Each structure stands twice: as structure tokens, then as C-alpha cells.
TrEMBL record:
GO MF terms held by the record: metal ion binding; oxidoreductase activity
Similarity annotation: Belongs to the iron/ascorbate-dependent oxidoreductase family.
Protein's UniProt name: Fe2OG dioxygenase domain-containing protein
Residue ranges of every copy of the Fe2OG dioxygenase domain listed in the record: 132-232
Pfam families the record matches: 2OG-FeII_Oxy
PANTHER family, per database record: OXOGLUTARATE/IRON-DEPENDENT DIOXYGENASE
Gene source species: Eucalyptus grandis
Keyword Flavoprotein assigned: no
Amino acid sequence: MESQIPPLDSGSSVVSVQELIKETINTVPERYVRHDQEPLILSDNGSTQTSVVPVIDLGKLSSDEIVGDQELQKLHEACKDLGLFQYLPFTRRIALDSYIKETQKLAMQLLSLISKCLDIEINELKELFDDGFQTMRMTYYPPCPRPELVVGLTPHSDANGITILNQINDVDGFQIKKDGVWIPIHILPRAFVVNVGDIMEILSNGVYNSIEHRATVDTTSERISIAMFFNPKLDLEIGPIQSLKTKESPALFRRIKMEKYVKDFFSQNLNGKSYLEKMKLQPEKAFASEEE
């Protein structure tokens, strides 16, 4: 049977990916080919690296002092060196409204733990994020016959504070950029992935690292994910936390109203960590900010 999809020339309307996958196609329409994307570069042995993403056990964090301190240090190192960790919840199969409430509770719990890791007031981050600007994105990545020619989601770092990602159907496609190399990550079954975002890097004055990541597509299987993004309140001003600024570690980022930060971010295309770079202070301004 002849395909009913119109040719993708300059005179036709844009055909959605959802419409394309209703047909059996063996090639990728030129409109969807990304000629400028970085090629897939795996680790030295060409395999995925599950061990690179630590799993944090919140139960251990509330156990005896020795075990709890060890797990807290593990969380600190994950946020500092990778900007990413995994967490295994008790269950995921709940109604959407309950899911949102539970992830909100988890986010507040993680923010308290991160405050403890940074050695700042335990409620300092919670007060910034409580009743803050929160969004949710559900994403469907259809299968593609030539996945190396397309991109599921452009390389970027999340602009928010922390992201809680739920990979619904356990189809891999999440990749992080570490030391200039794209590493495919195998997310453990039922696990949430927690990303450190640009705002957390700003608040921590560069102690923590927002991770650049992207999404790829699979040859035969669809991929579905739900991401929850947590931000401070829109009427607040964000910048490095005061107690993390010293003469030895002056402010690395400028201060900005949260509402303007969000508007400026969404006014540009996703492009790695380019927006965070714009937030950085020049060395002489960093010292001037410290003196204020």
C-alpha cells in the first residue's frame, strides 16, 4: 500500500513524528536528520557504564551515624563529580496526582540532604524551593530505523535546581557528557535518576556540577520518560549562597531574579551549558561581588 504521508518538501506542512511511525519507513526524512550533532562516542571498551552512576540509599542516610555519614559522603561526591545519581523508590505505580506529591516530598528530602552535604543551614535550600516553580514533562521517543542520524533531545544541562527522571519502560537512551565523552547510561529498573541542574551549580557556587546530557532513540523500541523539574520561587533572587562565598572561593555567578532567569533561558535554544556560562562572573567581578 502506498504511503499517505505527503513528501516533506518546502511546500508541505510538517509531518509529526507520531504520524511518521504509523507508516513503515526505512529511511529518515531529511527534515529530521541532524547533521550537526556530535557522533556517538562510547567509553574505551565500547560498553555502557552502569557503575558510573551511584545509587543512593535514603534508608542508610537515616541509619546509624557511621553508615549515614558514609552514604552522605557518597551523595556529596555524586553531586560534585558527576551531577547525577540514582535512587530506588519503594514503588512507582501510583496515580499521577499522588506521584507528583511523592516526588515533591522526595525533592524536599533531597534538598535537606544536599544542604547537609554543603554544610549550610539544613533548611536553607528547602526554604528557597518550597512552593517553588515546578514543572513536569512527559516525553515519548519513537523507534527510528537510523537512530545515529537523529537526536531524541538536544544536548543540554537542566536550567533548574534538581530534576527527578522516571524512565517508564526501561528502554535506554539517556547519555551524559563526562570529560568530553558521551557515556550511555543504563538506568536500573524502577530507579529514579536525579540530575543536578544549573541553579544548584549556581547556589553551591560551583561546588556541585550540573550535568550535560542528551537523549537518543532506539531502533525497535519506543522510550517514555517523565521528568519533574524543581526550582526556587519565581519572586526570589538567585545567586551563590552567602556562606559558600569566601575570599578563597569568591562568587562565581551573578545574581538574578528567578523570573528573569527563566524567561532568558527559554528565549534561547538548548545548547549544552551555554546559558550557565552566561551566568558566570569575570574574575575581577567575582572579587568585587565578594567585597559587597
